[in-house]
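Hi all, posting the design record for the shared folder.

TITLE: backbone redesign
STEP: 1 of 1
STRUCTURE INPUT:
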């Protein structure tokens, strides 16, 4: 439990109204002995990070793609469900819980920030004096105190790389590149094939390339150049169609009918 203010409690009570398949359900928020407490849904299968690093977990590409889509849908809901924007500010694999059928659920809304009513064609941003979040997932503008919906888009791009590679956000195989996102951008921009790909996922080459391009767009340095999450979900739906039309998927559907 973390000490927070009454304003934090009021903001959390606003968050309770958010309900979506890909969000952990927040039942109530209360102050107990000057400590801020949140009562949440229990999700049985642990975090995405724990599954990605477990040696006995062989998540194939179809499950990973399902997880990618679910996380994006959850973030998009936070960004678009109401007349105000809710920015999570701590999207990371440790904050993605999985159900028994691997449905992802975003949790930990302790840093979530509700932005003012929709203005400026969705490009609104606020400035804060404190830097919040987890460093490997933080977009460049966060160090200037800028918070917008595209803050979460950058963090999602990092999670996407974790799902593709199976590596943690702190991974790097190059001196001078501290984190996975920096290492990926170095490899992508210099056309190097050394970025790790999870072998157990058995990624089809075309799907892998599309996801890496999407991650690249989510990680653009200027936050205004990143896509909004509704564009990301649309792109993922198209990538999913590539999976549905693959020979392996067609064979699976055929044998399921006999």
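Okay, here is what came back for every position:
SEQUENCE:
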């Amino acid at each position: 439990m973390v000490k927070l203010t009454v304003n934090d409690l009021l903001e959390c009570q606003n968050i309770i109204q958010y309900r979506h398949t890909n969000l952990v359900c927040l039942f109530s928020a209360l102050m107990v002995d000057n400590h801020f407490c949140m009562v949440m849904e229990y999700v049985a299968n642990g975090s995405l990070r724990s599954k990605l690093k477990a040696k006995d977990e062989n998540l194939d590409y179809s499950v990973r793609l399902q997880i990618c889509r679910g996380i994006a849908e959850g973030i998009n809901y936070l960004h678009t469900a109401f007349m105000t924007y809710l920015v999570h500010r701590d999207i990371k694999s440790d904050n993605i819980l999985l159900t028994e059928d691997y449905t992802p659920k975003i949790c930990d809304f302790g840093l979530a920030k509700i932005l003012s009513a929709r203005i400026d064609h969705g490009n609104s941003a606020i400035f804060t004096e404190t830097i919040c979040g987890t460093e490997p997932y933080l977009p460049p503008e966060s160090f200037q105190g800028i918070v917008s919906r595209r803050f979460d888009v950058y963090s999602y791009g990092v999670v996407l790389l974790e799902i593709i590679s199976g590596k943690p956000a702190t991974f790097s195989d190059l001196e001078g590149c501290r984190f996975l996102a920096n290492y990926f951008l170095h490899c992508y921009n210099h056309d190097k094939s050394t970025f790790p790909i999870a072998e157990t996922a058995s990624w089809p080459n075309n799907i892998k390339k599309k996801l890496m391009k999407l991650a690249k767009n989510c990680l653009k340095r200027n936050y205004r150049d990143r896509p909004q999450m509704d564009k990301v979900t649309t792109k993922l739906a198209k990538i999913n169609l590539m999976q549905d039309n693959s020979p392996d998927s067609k064979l699976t559907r055929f044998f399921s009918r006999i």
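COMMENT: Residues 61-80 form the longest helix (20 residues).
Let me know if anyone wants the other runs.
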